[in-house]
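Incident review: delayed structure delivery

Summary: a single-chain prediction request sat in the queue longer than the usual turnaround. Root cause was a stuck worker, restarted by the on-call engineer. No data loss occurred. The affected request and its eventual output are reproduced below so the record is complete for anyone auditing the incident later.

Affected input:
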Amino acid sequence: MKNLCLFFLFLSLPLVTALTIQNVVVNPSSPIKGLFIVSFSTDVTANATLIFNPNTLSSQTQSDLTSFTFSYSTPPLDGNYTLQITANSTIEGVQQAISLIIDNTAPTLAYALSTLTPQSTQFFEINATATDPNGVSQVNLTGTRTQALTLTNGRWTAQLLPSEVGCPSSGSCSLTLHAKDLAGNDQSQSITLTLNTTSMPPQINLQFPLPNAIQNNSYFLLQYTVNESIPPTPTQSFCTLNLYRDNTILRQIDHYLTNFTNQAVLHLFSQRVSGLKDGLYTMNLSCINLNSAISSLSRLITIIDRTNPSLVSYTVDPFEQRALLSGETDEETTVQLQYASDLSMLSKAEYQSVTVTGKMFYYTFRNLNPKTNYYYQITLQDYSNNRLAFGPYNFTTYSLENTSANQNVTLVPTSYPGYLDEPGVVHATKELSKILANTLQKIFLDELNQSLTQIEFLSREDQTPLEIDLYQLSKLPVSLTPLTQDTAAVFYIHHPSLDDKKLQDIRLQFKVLKNWLAQKEYTKESIQLERYENDLWIELPTQVIHEDTYTITYQANSPGLSLFAITANPNQKFTLPAPKLVVVSNSTNSAPTPLPSQEQSYLWLWIVLLFVILFALGTYLYLFTDFKNVLVRTKKQPHYATLDLETQAPPQEKVNTKEFPPNFDSLCSFVQRCVNQGLHEEKIKIGLAKKGWKLEYIEEAIRCCTKSK
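Output delivered after worker restart:
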């Protein structure tokens, strides 16, 4: 009964709600200029107080309310503040802090005009700098019309016609430049334009080439705009480009109004100036308007051309006794042609000059035999002497009995040669992404563990290939023309979805094992990459680009992708030195054996070194061993034989087994080089033994090299 009474007593007590501050609003939002109002509410009746920190304004209090509004008509000084809100009910009290930024100061404003006296149809450019600690929201130029400036790289800019801000066609025009910060503070500057009725020269804005430009090709891009309201007539030259080298004019190109893209008074011109060779050029560009007012500017351009020209397209139209060749290159070049009916004689054929017009070339084959297959090769050379040959290609002349037969055939590699399905062929696939035009593409193949490690090229058009297949052949197929040189590797690049006729500047990187070179006794300069095309192996320009402990990496330029072989020139082998017998006599009349010319310059060094070694060794033996008795027995022998690495005949006399010849260090040096190149010890022994070296000398030299290593 007692517990029941307590329960009803608890229910009769009033419910108590926790005090909270809600819906806090500051109007206007921070940053604040001038008058502002703070409002909020509480969920129960309370007393509220607002305190500024720092304490620059008096605190305000309102009592017995649930909705509070505090107004501040006198703002504090500029700065950052904390507004402390305190609310107290009969039971508890709560607090809440608000951060405010007070900004009553206008931004700073400065400007610059391209001209104060523009023509009514001439653009003028305005650049303004507006700064404020809390940020600038907008900058406008106002006459009878208002135009907003655009913020670019920290500056507010605009390019306007006088009429766009309401200026008349002549006389003065008053404008106002306004800058407003985020708090709404406004700063202004007055500007007066005087519209010029006299003719002003054209305004040239040269976009390319850039100042002191360096172009890594035989051309440069010329792109500029001209601001001119009264250009010359279409039959008169608007602008003229003069190109100088060593104070000598090389080019003079006139640009007419019809060559420009015209947008009202703004005229855009773009052109590629090509056919240039390496060197420093001075470019002068001048423009003239209808009233003969002229403006001009100059630039320096450095041309560095290391890019080979490329064959874009070519066609041959054969007849009975002649054929017409036409084609296109990617730049202005000189074109030469070789042709022969025998493929083996093509490389020895005389060069024929080809007619060239810009990037197009033409040639007529004359006095040909009917129904005959002819091979030809096209060689391009640009103005910087970059030279590259394309081919061989072929065509067949018509028969005199059947002139309508179309026998214009160009030999190209088959899409998928049958020998790629033979046993021993290792196949790997590399997926490709989209290839963009005129963008260097690098296809890395290191993960495929094959001889070819990388392919580089440029494409003249966008391509979307799916993949590229690489086939490593264990041997050269018997159906192909045999190679005359030793072969390190054979590989085929299959590219069914990649058009290599649209490719240029193709570079292949491949690696060769040093162990293979050492076993075959080839120098690293002997390696050459060859490409198989039209039943002919063609040597490609090859060079060493990297060398590490086990491999040497090479790079070769190729006109296309097909079958390749890594070969070694047998004329570039290194040879083993042969020993030479030198008899040293006790007689003072015996003449010394002359040394090879390449060692004579080091004779004094070997003498000093040998003397020091012998002196130290003799002193040690004499003082600390029983060498005296050995020395006495040795003096009784009148002669002994030594070896010289450069002689051809083997030694004929017995050698004191307790001593080594004076040139034993040379033998050790040679063995050390062989070991460093990966040559096996047995092969070193066999090679030196064939040259007449004693087995004990060879084994001691190998032992010393192994120990030192």
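Verification: The chain has six domains: 21-102, 108-195, 203-303, 311-396, 418-572, 580-588+602-708.
Action items: add queue-age alerting; document worker restart procedure.
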